[in-house]
Amino acid sequence: MTDHNGIALITGGSGGIGAAIARELSERGKGVAFTYLRNREKAEALAEELSKAGGVAIAIELDLRDDEAVSTTVDQLAKDHDGIHSLVTAHGPFIEMVHMSNLTPKLLRKTFESDTFAAYNVIHAAIPHLRKTKGAMVAITTAALGRYASTDILSVGPKSAIETFARGVAVEEGKFGVRANAVGVGLLEDGMFGPLVDAGSFNQKFLEKSRENIALRRFGTSTEVAKLVGFLLSEDSSFVTGQHIMADGGYAV
Q1: What is the rounded average pLDDT of the residues 84-88?
Q2: CATH number of the domain that 127 lies in?
Q3: Backbone angles phi, psi at 204, to 5 degrees
Q4: What is the mean predicted confidence (pLDDT) over 188-208?
Q5: CA 198 to CA 147: how far, in whole Å?
Q6: What is the per-residue pLDDT for 128?
Q7: d(CA 220, CA 237)
Q8: At a CB cut-off of 8 Å and minimum separation 6, what does 32 contact?
Q9: 252 domain-assigned
């Protein structure tokens, strides 16, 4: 994050990773605004928590698939808070684990709309504001981009495009001082991991095998991911851009 005034924008702030990132940036003294789609109660609770701790925290109900609504919201946020210095795309729909042979085009299209197109909408809207602040963005992706896991196409496909968006911003906007990186997230104890276990997508054998495939032999946490994101948005990483860094405990090694 630069020393400019302004605010950080996080998509998917009511989720485990998004909320952890909001807390991390708030602890670093940055005002945060985060979007949510349905979970108003969790989003408002997070905003209240951060505000009580002395930070600026704004929960915004927003359908990221609506490009016009996204553009209007981002422009207004920048106007109200003297700019946007950081962007994190941490949103993502619940992902069904399914073999490609069983994946319908309709479900694939729906997932891309909720994940990939949603990310592009907010990135496109934020670019002019990041130029003004010489800001930075981080796209949250998946460790499966480095090591494909069977039945994970609904995560890998959309996130591979989002990772490409980050590289595109790095290459095209670097001349304006804008940096962009991506973080590939592995299996976490929190975040979307819990719901997938509850849904039966992961059985005990899968969990044991997954731990064996992780160099550190453990699952991570959203807080660990947030620490990396905080670094990538800070001046400590001022010469780091266009990178896809894995926060996966060594899963993709």
Answers
A1: 98
A2: 3.40.50.720
A3: -60, -40
A4: 70
A5: 24
A6: 98
A7: 22
A8: 7, 8, 9, 10, 13, 22, 25, 26, 50, 55, 56, 57, 58
A9: no
